[in-house]
Design a protein that fits this description.
This is Diguanylate cyclase/phosphodiesterase. The chain contains twelve helices and twelve strands. It has 282 residues and is α/β, with parallel strands linked by helices. The strands form two sheets. The chain has an eight-stranded mixed β-barrel, surrounded by four helices. A two-stranded antiparallel ribbon has the order 1-2.
Length: 282
């Protein structure tokens, strides 16, 4: 079926697109009740240094809907962005993470960093940015234990607004990671102006270490660049010892991926089994 998009323009509209649209509408319809129905929770994925010591965690959102089951953030976050629901979700994540982080730092030490993902839309929403800055000033957000992850594309689309907010974050003593680095729209000249602490190499490159010379070269280049700019560099999505060895040999100082730990619920962070697993990675 071809769908008329006005002005005599036609685009192909296939059955699978129709199915996709139906699913999107379904997700968008269920999303508004997720918070009040208590359907969200956070899981945490460890980050380790080159010696295998846990230095931080990334908070990742999970949603279970009674009818739709588990829905991945890769699916519902873009829908939340498009349906103007992202800011309430972000606020929920921040408040919830800040309730849980003290337990994590009590257990893993006061230097532990827990990162919270922000959406592009959050950076240009004053309700969100003011809420975060207020949280940092009032102590509601434990500045020494928190870090925000923003995606490169988010940053590039609103460069001046985003950069002003990030400058404020830095002034409040907060750490910032640039997520999914290498896949966005980066211009090298911008990177020196970035108000960030850490570059996160995207999983796309990490997963091809050992199989793609090109991805290996890009990975080495990102690590070199981060070092020259005095930034930390974190690799996400590490699944094999080969990838881990390659990354540490080339100077990557923070490692994250299923090889070390999958994202797990808060209480599991404190279980003996999990501790043993994390130690095994050492
Ligand atoms: P991200 O921030 O780049 O997070 C990394 C994703 O890779 C996570 O997927 C994580 O579970 C997955 N991952 C980590 N290690 C491995 C590995 O070794 N192998 C493989 N195959 N995957 C690995 P997840 O949790 O499904 O999240 C997907 C994306 O959704 C995130 O990408 C982030 O962009 C977004 N997201 C998740 N939670 C939040 C949130 O609270 N707020 C916002 N705004 N976005 C979120
Ligand atoms: Mg992230
Ligand atoms: Mg990432
Ligand atoms: Mg990624």
């Amino acid at each position: 079926k071809a769908k008329n998009e006005g002005k005599g323009r036609y685009v192909w509209f296939t059955a699978s697109m129709q199915e996709e649209t139906r699913r999107k509408i379904q997700v968008a319809t269920h999303l508004p009740q997720a918070i009040e129905n208590d359907e969200f929770h956070l899981v945490y994925q460890a980050k380790v240094n080159s010696k295998g010591k846990v230095v931080g965690f990334e908070a990742l959102l999970r949603w279970f809907d009674n009818e739709l089951g588990n829905i991945s953030p890769a699916e519902f976050i873009p829908i939340a962005e498009q349906s103007d629901r992202i800011s309430e979700i972000t606020l929920w994540v921040i408040v919830q993470a800040c309730l849980e982080i003290p337990h994590i730092s009590e257990h893993y030490g006061e230097d532990i960093r827990v990162s919270i993902n922000l959406s592009a839309y959050d950076l240009k929403n004053v309700h969100v940015t003011e809420f975060i800055l207020e949280g940092l000033r009032s102590g509601g957000i434990p500045r020494n234990n928190v870090e925000f992850e923003i995606t490169e594309s988010a940053y590039m689309n609103n460069f001046s607004i985003a950069n002003a907010f990030l400058a404020e974050l830095k002034k409040e003593g907060c750490k910032i990671s640039l997520d999914d680095f290498g896949t966005g729209y980066s211009s090298l000249s911008y990177i020196t102006e970035f108000n960030i602490d850490t570059l996160k190499i995207d999983r796309q490159f990490v997963s091809q270490i050992g199989t793609s010379k090109r991805s290996e070269l890009i990975t080495i280049t990102i690590i070199e660049m981060a070092k020259n700019l005095n930034l930390n560099v974190c690799a996400e999505g590490i699944e094999t010892h080969e990838q881990s060895a390659f990354l540490t040999e080339n100077g990557c100082n923070i490692l994250q991926g299923f090889l070390y730990s999958k994202p797990i619920p808060l209480d599991a962070l404190f279980s003996q089994e999990e501790q043993a697993l994390l130690n095994l990675a050492n």
